[in-house]
Amino acid sequence: MPFIEPDIEITADGTPTLRHPLFGDSYHSFNGAMTESRHVFIEAGVRHWLAETRSAWEGGNVDAPVHILEVGFGSGLNAWLTLCEAEASRYRIEYTAIERYPVSPHVAARLQYTEDPLFMRLHNAAWDGLRPISPHFTLEKIEADLVNCDFNAIFDLIFFDAFAPDTQPELWSETVFGKLFSHTAPGGMLVTYSAKGSVKQSLRAAGWEVQRLPGAPGKRHMLRARKRAFFA
Hints:
Radius of gyration: 16 Å
CATH superfamily: Vaccinia Virus protein VP39
Structural class: alpha/beta
Distance between the termini: 45 Å
Oligomer: single chain
Helix content: 25-40%
């Protein structure tokens, strides 16, 4: 499998990010890589879903896994932070990540987000298959272009972490958000760092109910979108 080897740069909170060698974009905000990931995908995503949606539906039943899709595995930071949430909450998470340009494990090992060996287990896990990473977390990494990828799963929560709309406009389209909508469970959610007007418009056109939230440092807003539950 061909891997890319992005340059490593340090962000304002002291944690590293990568710069894509083809697009020239950074993988995280320069106002803080770890800060942004925690704010957008953990606080507004995983913790919100577990606290409000899952407990309301299932009374906190930890036997049924949470199905998460990440658009853009990248540095593995979002996946590792989610793994940490799975271990802390004892909820089982089945995590699928789609990535067009897999990052070399050699580069990932230099990121030094953590000394937790599970971080590198995420990167070293084989692609295109479901792999157990910990007792509460399984990972499936798919090397594919989201535009042309067909999923066989239904997801509860989607991390939409593609590069910026100006860089990859084809991924922020009504067509793509419609595809994701059709693979989201009723009551499921999508979170993303971008609150651009065209993004909100594309999400709503695809059927999502869109909520604007305070953004991570350096951004005024982010978005959380929901697929209305049948019983709502």
